[in-house]
Automatic annotation (TrEMBL):
<protein>
    <submittedName>
        <fullName>Transglutaminase-like putative cysteine protease</fullName>
    </submittedName>
</protein>
<feature type="domain" description="Transglutaminase-like">
    <location>
        <begin position="177"/>
        <end position="247"/>
    </location>
</feature>
<dbReference type="InterPro" id="IPR038765">
    <property type="entry name" value="Papain-like_cys_pep_sf"/>
</dbReference>
<dbReference type="InterPro" id="IPR002931">
    <property type="entry name" value="Transglutaminase-like"/>
</dbReference>
<dbReference type="Pfam" id="PF01841">
    <property type="entry name" value="Transglut_core"/>
</dbReference>
<dbReference type="InterPro" id="IPR013589">
    <property type="entry name" value="Bac_transglu_N"/>
</dbReference>
<dbReference type="Pfam" id="PF08379">
    <property type="entry name" value="Bact_transglu_N"/>
</dbReference>
Length: 293
C-alpha cells in the first residue's frame, strides 16, 4: 500500500521568539517492509542553519536554527511511502520460551543479541519496577513461548485500559497510568515496554502513523489523523516484531514507521530550545492519505 503523510506543527507565541534550535524526526525510516519514496521538510521562518544526520538508532534527523524574531513557527513534513504486507505466518503457541530468550539475551554475545540488550535497560520514561512486573506476571507464565506471552500482554492492555486523551501528558508516570487504567497510545506502548523489561527482556518504542478510517457513510476529515506509537520485541528466531496495544493488532500495511528508540524521548517528532516566546499555542495536524497499491 502506498501512502502520502503530511504532518504540520504550528507554534504561535504571545511574545516574539528571538532564537531557536530544533530537531525534527518526521521522515519515515527504511524498514524491511517499508520503502521511502520521497520526503520534504518545509520550515517557516526559513532556517539560517540546516543539516541532516542519522542518529544512534538509525533514525533520520533534521537539525536547524532560526535566528530572526518570529511569533509563528511552522514545520510541515510531507512524505510518500510504500508499505509491503508481512508474509510471515505466526504460530503463537510455538517458539522459544520467554525464559530461554531471556537467558540468551544476557549470555549470548552475538551481534543481534548484543544490540537488542540495550533495549532491556531502564530509559528516561520507563523504569521497570515491581508494579509493572506484577501486571506482566499473568502473561509471562512459566514455559510460555515469548511470542504468545507478548501477544497476551498486548490483548490484556487493550482490554484493561481506556483510551483517554485528556488523562495523561508527557510528565504522567507509568504508575499513574497503571493505577487508573487510562491513557493514550504513547502510554500503552511505554506500559508494555516496562512490563517486558521487568521480565528481563528487550523491547523498543516505535513512533509513526496509522491510516484511520472514517465512520461508515462519513467522509474522512483532512488533518484528522494523528501520530501513533506502538512497541517492538526482539525474537531470536524472527528478529524484531511490532505489536500495537492501542488497536490490539500486529502492525501491517496500515502502520507507517518513522523512528524507534528506548522510549518517546529518543523519537520526539519536534523538540528544541527557544529564547523568548514563553507563552505559546500549539497545533498539530496529520493527514495519512491512501494512494492505493
Amino acid at each position: 500500500m502506498r501512502y502520502r503523510v503530511t504532518h504540520t506543527t504550528t507554534y504561535r507565541y504571545q511574545q516574539a521568539v528571538g532564537l531557536s534550535y530544533n530537531e525534527v524526526r518526521m521522515q519515515p525510516r527504511p524498514c524491511p517492509n517499508q520503502q521511502l519514496l520521497s520526503s520534504q521538510l518545509k520550515i517557516n521562518p526559513l532556517p539560517c542553519d540546516y543539516r541532516t544526520r542519522t542518529d544512534f538508532f538509525g533514525n533520520q534527523v533534521a537539525w536547524f536554527s532560526i535566528r530572526e524574531p518570529h511569533r509563528e513557527f511552522v514545520v510541515t513534513a510531507s512524505s510518500e511511502v510504500q508499505i509491503f504486507a508481512q508474509s510471515v505466518q505466526l504460530d503463537f503457541n510455538h517458539g522459544m520460551s520467554w525464559e530461554l530468550v531471556k537467558e540468551a539475551l544476557w549470555n549470548d554475545r552475538s551481534e543481534p543479541l548484543l544490540e537488542a540488550r540495550q533495549f532491556a535497560l531502564d530509559s528516561p520514561f520507563i523504569s521497570a519496577d515491581a508494579e509493572l512486573a506484577g501486571y506482566a506476571q499473568a502473561s509471562f507464565t512459566p514455559g510460555k513461548a515469548l511470542i504468545e506471552a507478548i501477544h497476551d500482554l498486548m490483548q490484556r492492555i487493550h482490554r484493561d485500559f481506556t483510551f483517554d486523551p485528556e488523562f495523561t501528558n508527557l510528565a504522567t508516570p507509568l504508575t499513574t497510568v497503571l493505577q487508573h487504567r487510562r491513557g493514550v497510545c504513547q502510554d500503552f506502548a511505554h506500559l508494555a515496554i516496562g512490563c517486558i523489561r521487568s521480565q528481563g527482556l528487550a523491547a523498543r518504542y516505535v513512533s509513526g502513523y496509522i491510516e484511520t478510517l472514517p465512520p461508515p457513510g462519513k467522509k474522512k476529515l483532512v488533518g484528522a489523523d494523528a501520530s501513533h506509537a506502538w512497541f517492538s520485541v526482539y525474537l531470536p528466531d524472527l528478529g524484531w516484531m511490532d505489536f500495537d496495544p492501542t488497536n490490539n493488532q500486529l502492525p501491517g500495511d496500515r502502520h507507517i514507521t518513522v523512528a524507534w528508540g528506548r522510549d518517546y524521548s529518543d523519537v520526539t517528532p519536534l523538540k528544541g530550545v527557544i529564547f523568548g516566546g514563553q507563552n505559546h499555542e500549539l497545533k498539530v495536524a496529520v493527514e495519512v492519505e491512501n494512494l492505493g497499491v
